[in-house]
Amino acid sequence: MNRRAAVRNLLYIAGGALVLPACFRKSGKASIELANLAISEDDERLLAELTETLIPATDTPGGKELLLHLFVLKMVDDCHSPKDQQQFAKGLSAFSAWSEKELDGEFAAANTDSRVKLLDKIGKSDNEELKKFFSITKRRAIQGYMNSRYVMTNLVKYELVPGRYNGFAPA
Question: Could you tell me the superkingdom of the organism this chain comes from (predicted)?
Fold first, then answer.
């Protein structure tokens, strides 16, 4: 074996050994930088599962594939009042604890039917933080879906202004 090839292979192995642990380590931080919200990696994962339950993947992409959870976080961080942001953060932690209690396990581990039944129970709940959190999340997830690139390019038929002339339109 050539000495240069052996040294090169040794450097590849050493570099891989240094980089590999960083690939599997949990950072604990959200993948998006937020100015006003403090969201952990687990909270982000829970929100991704929630948006996937709200907008499931069928023949169209779902909430996870369209990254709607990041849209929800960014919109809450940028466009909502500090009071709403605080209620959202409290509601997220309340939803996490409530869903674990109701499902006897994590929300992400539950099947789709039990997730949908759980989300139906939120309207009947007495917890106002939970209702506010779900309301904001649902509204922003739908807004993100309707404004996503997929919907705007594949589902919405766009006509340039002024559009077609329709002589039979009622006056």
Answer: Bacteria
Residues 48, 73: Cα–Cα separation, whole Å: 10
* CB-CB neighbours of 76 under 10 Å: 23
Phi/psi of residue 37, nearest 5 degrees = -100, 145
Give SS3 for 40: strand
Domain extents in the chain:
27-155
**What tokens appear for 73 in the block?**
């976080």
The reported pTM is 0.75
81-105: pLDDT as tens digits:
999 999 999 999 999 999 898 888 8
What's the rounded Cα separation, in Å, for the pair 171 and 164?
16
